[in-house]
Automatic annotation (TrEMBL):
InterPro entries: AAA+_ATPase, BchD/ChlD_VWA, ChlI/MoxR_AAA_lid, Mg_chelatase_ATPase-dsu, Mg_chelatse_chII-like_cat_dom, P-loop_NTPase, VWF_A, vWFA_dom_sf. GO terms for biological process: chlorophyll biosynthetic process; photosynthesis. It comes from Rhizochromulina marina. CDD domains: vWA_Magnesium_chelatase (cd01451). Residues 368-398 have a biased composition (Acidic residues). This is Mg-protoporphyrin IX chelatase.
Length: 709
């Protein structure tokens, strides 16, 4: 059901031939479909994020929404889809200058009706294509800078769809969400200054198994739902298969197409009327207070939770043609506040959270005579006064709010429907991958001014920079009247180079203390952790290296590799015993990591040091000209400590390096040296007296993920 298809030519003429699956025929996913309809009514919601595994109809629902979107009216031939009913301050730079020069208003311009725009952002899009850039051809012809609008200009007042947003370049994702939050695009580049509105409905989909989506990106979007939250039953799965097979057979599906078109036309009409009534749909103070209290109870950070909840409640009420009531507020809490909550939803605790059953009623007693005597003793006038006091005054204009909160005081959902809906999406396995920026190889992401020798010329950016000055340069060189001469005059100030980026793995260096009686246990734990990480290296492109230190110097036992066979062959024999040259191990780790980074395949380096931090061999012993055994003196402990801390500071100062100290020292004889090393390096400290391969592998994976973030 994740089939790709082009958007229909018009939102009002969907047919079976357009290749877009109807939204009404998607089985299940009621919450996602409701959120999409609310976003179509109120674009102030900002955007909708849909997560889910493969084949869960994420992109199908996004494209199906376009079928029912009403057409829009814009200024004729406007490249920015300007609304003819907007004010002068809400138009693009070019139209504003045109109206001011002609002394006209927007009402004086011709208009046209076009289908609702549907723009998809590809993952390999560049910044100039996204925001807009100089049109080289027109700039050369006209002798001045001519701006060519980007994808965001075409998406204004329409749908902006981003598939696999978690794989989108980080810089582009920040630009995209900044534009969506502000509603404006500002382009200041290559001698141009342009500002135009951009307020589309952003629909983003992603598979959390491929990579995680950063929390601050999700917070910018009003709604974040998971297509895996409520799996389909067996009957629903069969129904979904039947609908897809029937849709693929065009002849059989044409019989149902008339009903589908009629249903979509009704939805389109509801959206149009809901948009008209949305400005008049407001929330009372009590309703806003209820949403704010729910956000506070859920532990939402910031104020976006209640802000988006208010917009969702308004859209829900407008779509159902009513005032904002309790059902709209519950929908807002469900879609906007619940995903931002910081509660811990434990399925095993749900039975304990349910209220206890009511106590049994007391046994009946024969108190009829006593009740009759009490009624006779009461004054009938007092009874009438009490009845008048008990009747509350009716207020039909009072705002309707839910009778109970959906979160308790500790931030745990107590509403049964909310508990069922609160199933979190699966966490990602892949995580973010590091990027290596260079000017020699990789994917071309953006142009930049050269620094030193030009290696990869950005022809497109260079042409754009030189295009506005071609007429003047032709006049200066006497070539203005030579139409057959198509030479382009480029100067040094026009030259731009390519900034390349490529995915790079990380390097995990295990620094294992192979001295002392427990050396064999530490080495076996490091070996097991390395083999465990190597089994996942093909997914993340990570490499593993093991450097044991014992005797007078440390040595690279396992060079940086992703090969499991090489690791098994190298780790068959492991040296143990002798002194502890920790400072030399830090220096060797720096040299090994820097050499790996220079190869271009490694971005981040994480050093996992399994030691108690106590060194007894100075750096001078590791050099070739060091003293012999007969001439050696007992090293000074203070000098050894300062030498180790200096080596740790040097490691922490190298870009892209991170240190994790795993303290294996017994607390009864602890000196705290491992914690001092971690502090000097700016790394992390963990106390694991009995370090096993599972614990070391888990800590290494977490440290690697933090380094990539």
């Amino acid at each position: 059901m994740e089939a790709e298809g082009e958007a229909p030519e018009t939102a009002a003429s969907g047919t079976v031939e357009d290749g877009v699956f109807p939204l009404s025929k998607v089985v299940g996913q009621d919450s996602i479909k409701s959120a999409l309809l609310l976003g179509a009514v109120n674009t102030k919601m900002g955007g909708i994020a849909i997560s889910g595994g493969r084949g869960t109809a994420k992109s199908v629902m996004a494209r199906a929404l376009h079928r029912i979107m009403p057409p829009i009216e814009r200024v004729k031939d406007s490249d920015f889809n300007i609304d003819p009913e907007t004010s002068l301050g809400e138009v693009d730079t070019f139209l504003r200058d045109k109206l001011e020069a002609a002394g006209q208003t927007i009402a004086d311009l011709e208009t046209e009706i076009i289908p609702c725009p549907f723009v998809q952002i590809p993952l390999n899009v560049m910044e100039d294509r996204l925001l807009g850039s100089v049109n080289v051809e027109q700039s050369v012809k006209q002798g001045k800078t001519v701006f060519e609008p980007g994808l965001l200009a075409k998406a204004h007042r329409g749908i902006l769809y981003v598939d696999d947003i978690n794989l989108l370049d980080t810089e582009l994702a920040n630009i995209l969400l900044g534009v969506i939050s502000e509603g404006w695009v500002n382009v200041e580049r290559e001698g141009i200054s342009v500002r135009y509105p951009c307020r589309p409905l952003l629909i983003s989909t992603f598979n959390p198994e491929e990579a995680d989506l950063r929390d601050h990106l999700l917070d910018r979007l009003a709604v974040s739902l998971s297509a895996d939250a409520k799996p389909l039953t067996m009957e629903e799965r069969i129904e979904a298969v039947d609908e897809v097979i029937k849709f693929s057979d065009k002849k059989d599906y044409k019989a149902d197409m008339s009903d589908i078109l009629e249903e979509e036309e009704q939805l389109r009409t509801r959206i149009i009327f809901a948009r008209e009534s949305l400005p008049e749909t407001t929330l009372s103070y009590e309703q806003k207070l209820y949403l704010a209290e729910e956000a506070a109870r859920a532990g939402c950070q910031g104020h976006r939770g209640e802000i988006f909840a208010c917009e969702i409640a308004r859209a829900s009420a407008a779509l159902n043609d009513r005032r904002v009531d309790a059902e709209d507020l519950r929908m807002a809490v469900k879609l906007a506040i619940l995903p931002r909550g910081t509660f811990i939803n434990d399925p095993d605790m749900q039975d304990e959270m349910m209220p206890p059953p009511p106590p049994p009623p007391p046994p009946p007693q024969d108190n009829t005579e006593q009740d009759e005597d009490q009624e006779e003793q009461q004054d009938p006038e007092d009874n009438e006064e009490n009845e008048e006091e008990e009747e509350p005054p009716e207020d039909n204009d009072a705002p309707e709010i839910p009778q109970e909160f959906m979160f308790d005081a500790e931030g745990t959902p107590i509403d049964p429907d909310l508990l069922e809906f609160a199933k979190k999406e699966k966490t990602g396995k892949g995580g973010g991958r590091g990027l290596v920026f260079s000017q020699d190889r990789g994917r071309y992401i953006k142009p930049m001014l050269p620094r030193g020798r030009v290696t990869r010329l950005a022809v497109d950016a260079t042409m754009r920079a030189a295009a506005p000055y071609q007429r003047a340069r032709r006049e200066r060189n006497g070539q203005l009247d030579a139409p057959a001469d198509r030479r382009v005059f480029i100067e040094n100030s026009d030259v731009r180079v390519k900034r390349m980026a490529r995915k790079a793995g990380s390097l995990i260096i295990f620094l294992c203390d192979a001295s002392g009686s427990m050396a064999l246990n530490r080495m076996n734990a490091a070996k097991g952790a390395a083999m465990s990480l190597l089994t996942e290296a093909y997914q993340s492109r990570d490499k593993v290296c093991i450097i044991p230190f014992q005797g007078d110097a440390s040595d690279v036992l396992l060079p940086p590799t992703r090969s499991i066979a090489m690791a098994r062959r190298r780790l068959e024999t492991m040296p143990c015993g002798g002194g502890s040259p920790l400072a030399h191990a830090f220096n060797l780790a720096v040299r090994t990591g820097v050499n790996a980074q220079k190869s271009g395949d490694v971005g981040k380096v994480v050093c996992i040091c399994i030691s108690d931090g106590r060194a007894n061999v100075p750096l001078s012993y590791a050099s070739d000209g060091g003293p012999t055994d007969e001439n050696r003196e007992k090293p000074d402990k203070a000098a050894l400590k300062e030498e180790v801390l200096a080596a740790a500071r040097q490691l922490g100062s190298v870009p892209g390096f991170n240190l994790v100290m795993l303290d294996t020292e017994n607390k009864f004889v602890s000196t705290g040296m491992a914690k001092e090393i971690a502090k000097a390096c700016g790394g992390r400290y963990h106390y694991i007296p009995k370090a096993g391969e599972a614990a070391i592998s888990s800590i290494a994976s977490q440290a690697l993920a933090d380094a990539k973030d």
